[in-house]
Write a structure and sequence with these properties.
244 residues, alpha/beta, Lysozyme-like, six-stranded mixed sheet, two-stranded antiparallel ribbon, 5 helices, 12 strands, 18% strand, globular, disordered N terminus
């Protein structure tokens, strides 16, 4: 299915206005501006790489567009069309790179694939059991904004509920967000155990080639503040069985 749908066509498919699309139906994200590939394929062109899937993902992986570590949020939204630029790039590039949705610094959300039906190329060996979200960083300082992180957390809440992904994140022994590699989740080729884990993670957890700024601690801190469980990672990169 591609192209912009009329109101009548959306109604016939049970797609109300606004919200994400998961399992082919609308999932409301109150207070968040979401544009999908069905709403406006010029702003959010559909992803055509990757492949269709039959089993929904177990984990949500957050990324940042520049991988620059940001520890303090800008308090106000920053007007931007970078999400549209990234959306166009990933729909046209010959590289195997794609993700399901993007959150810009002005808190606008673009969705380009249904995470319950389409696997994107965003997390290496973890692609088959994860969905990907991108946080826009517009400049070399890696700035993220408070409205952007709230919108990303709202999206996380909605997707986790729709896909039955547990509301939990990874932290260090001190209870703060863990923004280092996790041996349990890394490919066996990289010396890890190559395990899956159900919850909300970052690209840095999955690979040795990304630094702590992908995605940094701020999205996880927001989710913890919303009541997400914290599973500790020990010094050996192993994940605790029970939350703190």
């Amino acid at each position: 299915m591609s192209g912009r749908l009329s109101q009548a066509e959306r109604a016939s498919l049970g797609l109300s206005a606004g919200g994400l699309i998961v399992h082919g139906v609308r999932v409301p994200v109150p207070g968040v501006s979401v544009t999908t590939w069905l709403d406006d394929p010029r702003r959010a062109p559909p992803i055509t790489d990757g492949r269709s899937i039959t089993a929904p993902p177990r984990a949500f992986v957050w990324h940042t567009s520049k991988g620059v570590l940001c520890r303090t949020l800008a308090p106000d939204a920053i007007p931007s069309t970078m999400a549209e630029t990234l959306a166009l790039y990933q729909s046209r590039t010959d590289r195997e790179v794609s993700w399901h949705l993007t959150v810009d610094t002005d808190a606008d959300v673009l969705q380009q694939a249904d995470p319950a039906r389409w696997m994107c190329w965003h997390a290496g060996g973890a692609n088959a059991w994860t969905l990907g979200g991108e946080l826009v960083q517009r400049d070399g300082t890696g700035t993220l904004t408070a409205p952007q992180i709230r919108a990303a957390a709202d999206v996380t809440d909605a997707v986790c509920a729709a896909l039955a992904i547990p509301r939990r994140v990874l932290v260090g022994p001190d209870g703060a967000p863990w923004i280092k590699q996790v041996k349990d989740l890394q490919s066996t080729k990289a010396g890890g155990r190559g395990l899956t884990w159900a919850g909300v993670i970052g690209h840095v957890h999955l690979t040795t080639d990304r630094g702590p700024g992908d995605p940094g601690p701020l999205i996880f801190a927001e989710l913890i503040a919303r009541g997400y469980a914290r599973h500790a990672v020990d010094a050996a990169g192993r994940i605790a069985r029970d939350p703190l």
